[in-house]
Fold these 2 entries.
Entry 1:
Amino acid sequence: MHETGGTETRKIVDCDVHPLIKSVDALSPYLSSRWRERFVPRSIGQSSSNGFVFARARDRYPHPNTTYRLDALPPNGGPAGSDPEFVLSDLIEPHGITTALLLPQEHYGVVRFSSAEAAAVFERANNEYLIDQWLAVDNRFALALTVSEHDPVAAAQSIRDLGRREGVVGVQLLINKTMLGSRLFDPIYAAAQDMGLAIVSHQNGSEGCYSFAQGPAGGAPRFYGERHSVLPQVGAANVVDMIMSGVFERFPELRVVMVEWGFSWLGALMSRADHLWMKNRSAAPHLKHAPSEYVVKHFKFATQPLDEASGSKEFEAMFGIPELNKMLVFSSDYPHYDTDAPDVILGKIPEPMKDAVYWQNALDAFGSKIFRN
Amino acid sequence: MLRDFCRFAGVTRFETLFPRMPEGWARHFDRYEWTGAVDLASNHIRVSDRFSHPPLEAFEPERLTVPSIVIPYQGLIVNGWADPVAAAVFVDALNAHALDQWAGDNARIALVINPHDPNGSAETLKAHRGDSRVGAITIPLTTAMLGQGIWDPVYRVVEEANWPVIIHFSGVEGAYLGAPPLAGAPHTNALSRHILMPHLAESNLASLVFEGTFYRFPRLQVVLAGFGFKWLPSLLRRMDQEWRNFRSDMPWVKDKPSAMVMRNVWVTTYPAGEATRPDTWEGEFSDELSRRLVFSSNAPFDSDDEQAVEAALGGKWLDRIASNSLELSGIVAAGR
């Protein structure tokens, strides 16, 4: 195992790094023969440049280019993000990253599975693979176990089974048809809270694609760029739903990290929620505090993709959202096409917020286990 | 003086409209469940059906103290109707009533179009060209996004007549089957729905921009009313970035999306109470963008007046909004 990197003065936690399996065969040791037969030779295929299971309907919203950086392809083959050693040399060491939170991407395709059993088996195999093949390689890797809504009780059990493994710091909960405020998720939230694991939400690609998936407001966007412009709405809607449904009254220690949903809409959302709640408190009987107080206490929001402001005044205002310094965490989204280069983005963070965004807010969300050394 | 770009008026009894309906249709609508639902339809925000609202007062245009665009809000709810034919009859009767009864020196009517039939609506609108009582049109939102070509016949008439298009939610979005969804999945909490309504404005604005609507209709002016306005800078940055990243995927979009918004789109102040502490957000509004904000009262529902706007946003913004309102009024007037 390598030694932890990072600078002496400032740790860096990258809350969005996507690992992929090298080939679907890699999961074979984690599957029974019955499931190996189902997954390995048939439905998924044996080679891929960017993963084996997809959530986004690629004949509906095809990406205009490639979803990954060409320079992130490992020299020894396999999809971008499939070689932990190359991720270390390509991302982590050059940028002095102390911890990279792994948000596995192949799980995203699980939202399309119709079989709850298949979803659980695939998720479990992939989680165990990453624990063995990535967390064991270097102590700068941390993992969010991934679970879906197919069978929340089974998901909760999986969290309890694997949640104490070294390097496991969170639970990536896939958004599918049910809003995250639903009591359906209570077994998952209970397990996460008991185990001290933060819930992590990352867009999975299914949004706006299927009748069983969530989508943006209004109707169907016409093409990829239009859809991508309004995708943050789904994250925002689930933030509101969790608060209004009383999740944080039921699970007061729960922390949620929203990744790749943006953050610059927070100021408008929080002030609107507070304003309308003040006018009509009885419409949300679960709430004991203003909605924005729940946001600040329970949520973190990742930086990528960082908005490009037109000038310093707008940029400063973007970071002037009340109490943003308590909510913002850094993310690169490596190895995707729109990776935010850590040196560029971290350099842009206003100096008074740097420690908070670099690592302190991640520490608040994930606890001290986010640093494995 | 402010000008109000979103003031509502409604009938207190649906029966009032029966004489304006084609033969036989009054009987169709004369059923106690529907006539008795006038209160339901008057809760246009539809925060919750469990809240009661006092009966509406009859709208009296002579009592308006500022020039206002008056939206017959009960027409908006046809976006949740299952019967598109009945919707046409209803909005035609409501529009006729509004023009006769609610237009005045300070009140110009926003004609509600039947969103289930854009072609038919365009033909109906043509009959109103040159009618000085008409100040705008309003399109109840459907799942056909506003940038789609099916709206072109409407925009063609509207642009020629120099009427702005005012967009306001009806309140059934995200609730009634067939009405536009809100972001995510169905929300059971009514307050959540209300909080998330601005997403409808975002999505339709993205549609208008990315579908190239403003190239086809360069003089079209769209007013997104009642959604607040603080959400706009974040969306513009996002759209500009998508355009920059994927310009080759949308070769028909030749300008930065935000530039189109500066020319063709307006947002309104209500609810100003969500925009207190301008020091926390005004830096996101360039001088150019701040010129796109006009006043809307939302009266006679929960509403803002000039004092409320000044209390929330301050005198500097109030002056700017008054100036912007004059500019939008001038753009509209210039075409007549």
Note: Chain B touches chain A through 69 residues (CB under 8 Å).
Entry 2:
Amino acid sequence: MKQSRIKEKGQTSFKAFAYAFSILSIVLLLFPLGWAISSSLKDPISLYQFPPKWIPEQPQVVTIVVDYSDSDMSDQQALERDGLKAMWYSWKRKQNEAIGEMRTIGMRDGRVLYEMKMRAFEFNAGRSYVLPTEVFTDQMMKTKYMLIKERGYSHVTWHGLDSETVYSPKQRAVSSTEDQLSAQIDAFLQSSSFLEGDVRTVSQSGDWMRIFDNYLAIFKENSLTSKSATILNSFMNSVYVVVLSIFSQLLLGGTAAYAISKLIGKQWSNRWTLFFVATIMIPEVAIIVPLYLVIGELGLTNNLWGVILPHTSWGIVIYMFKGFFDQIPDEMLQAARMDGANEWRIFYSMIVKLSIPIFTVISIMTFMAVWNEFLWPLIVLRDESLYTFTLYITSEASRPRAAGTGQSTMAMLLLAAIPLMVVFATCQRLIERGVSWSSGVKG
Amino acid sequence: MEKVSLAVPLKYRKKKRFPILAALFLVPSVLSFVVFKYVPMLYAIVMSLFDFSIMNPPGPFVGLSNFIHLFKSSLFQTALYNTFVIALLSLVMTFWIPILQAMLLIDIRRGNTLFRFLYLLPAAVPSIAAVLIWKWLYNPDYGLLNAILERIGLPAVGWLNDPAIAKFSLVLPGVLGGGLAVLIYYSALQGVSREIVESSTIDGAGPWRRMISIYLPGLKFIIGIQFIQFLATAFLAFDNIYVMTGGGPANSTNVMSLMVYNSAFKQNQFGMAGAISFIIFAIVAIITLIQIKVSNKE
């Protein structure tokens, strides 16, 4: 269309309005998403700060230097435990602050005995196992020492009693009062008695790299806990359900719709179409309780197949498939038949290839619906290890847990959006085509 | 045409009646639809007539007393009322917004694909996750919405804790529009003939006039379809209510779908759940029939 369009009155101002309206709509639409992203990057204190801020605080790296010059400790384990105490107990005390990483350096007469560090995601993953409450005793660390080592929450480097490494402070050696956090930690350690060594300095510096630790914590928690219900596990459950639902839908729906459209007489075709498509009218909620009993009879409660199988009875899938097959001219099939191809051969060598667009469209529509599904898996699945992703995030979000886990919930919610975002970004055209097909308008 | 079909030998045409392959293709789906759709539907009706016991089905026959009990109970009356109010609220507040968004999008040439993508993007967040994000926005103490209200000098609102506005808060996220609905209307608008649009322009119709007299009538069919789906979805809404309020505060958001779930899986009253299911089905069927009647008349 290369004709010059006729300028009309009010054209320019209308265009400006259309742009302004659309941009405003989109900004408002993305606003909850933006807030979720901002929340997912925050430390607990700024998460619950009022009035809220959009920009998260910069995570701080805190270094504690412990001096053993006046102590005659020589046992490696005891020394390491001491360092871990300094690190874990002061972090636990300040657990809601924006701490990104903590380091402890143990030294004697200018020589480094040990160095240890722990990043925020490691502390967050481990703290409910290592320090569920603020019990800062020697005994506490004795019982948890092995756990910390086994699961690798903290990284400890042992230099040895006769170490050659000279202690050289890289950061400011003295904690100043303007660094509130390190001053507070210093005061906390000075006033407590669980440490064998003397706290020499506590210092801090900012590090933006640790801003994504709420996300890393989710995966660390996954790989370092004995829970059977983990985020990765529920993610895989969802993938399993989605993939098998799509596959069984394409197989059952595709074949049935092809039979209706091409293999049987007109009268029977109409009857069967009605049989399938009329079920679109049955609301899900209205049959969910008896459906649960039916699934129980089949022995599929608390089983992922109990979630998958009812997806093979979607009237809309048959409707869309039939609409597509009806457009394939009968003459083509007749020609193939005359060439001696049998019906099965025609179906799998000809129709399947022709139908790739409709297969894709239905796959995407099913993906969106099943990935989001909540009520049906909620009813069918009991074991947390079988939970799909939507169930998992809901149960995590509603679980009364220690304060300061709201940010990892937000991170989890955003992770849940990634698969569909990828689908949208890659298959926008197909979705638009599918949208116009499923709503009965030929695109 | 006639000649082609005559040329087909008889034995091939005969095959079209009901070949084995057709039966093979149909049986699994028929089985699936019977087991997962038709049996449960009949089952719901049967259940509603019994004081249904899961352990020892079906339990004693009670006739219509489940229904009578329901209509007498104030809890059900409240749920029925809430269901209608929430559906009506979302109709008034949200149904027309994607239509407007699509109609204004059709005149945008530059970056149209990007706009469509951005409209679609929020739909990538699973509805449950979106609900949880909104719950966080609504948080009376730390939520962003109350912070904004405070900033502009308005008193804080107990979004989900105040029975008077909890229904409104449930519907509010939909006001932002977007999602698949925009794409549906947009693709329907592309079906509106360009010639009619051009000729109306020549006849001197301004852009607003064009929207009302050409685009809107062009959308009539799809709006009808969407209307039914919208009402059905609004009537059956479960996820957002279950997660946001769980029916509270003071039953002000307790709806029928929630009652089905609670009476079956929380209170073990399966007969009652069957009765409510049947009522839901009847309401949705009536709405659909009215819609079909209306659209046939036109």
Note: Residues 166 and 176 of chain B are 18 Å apart (CA to CA).
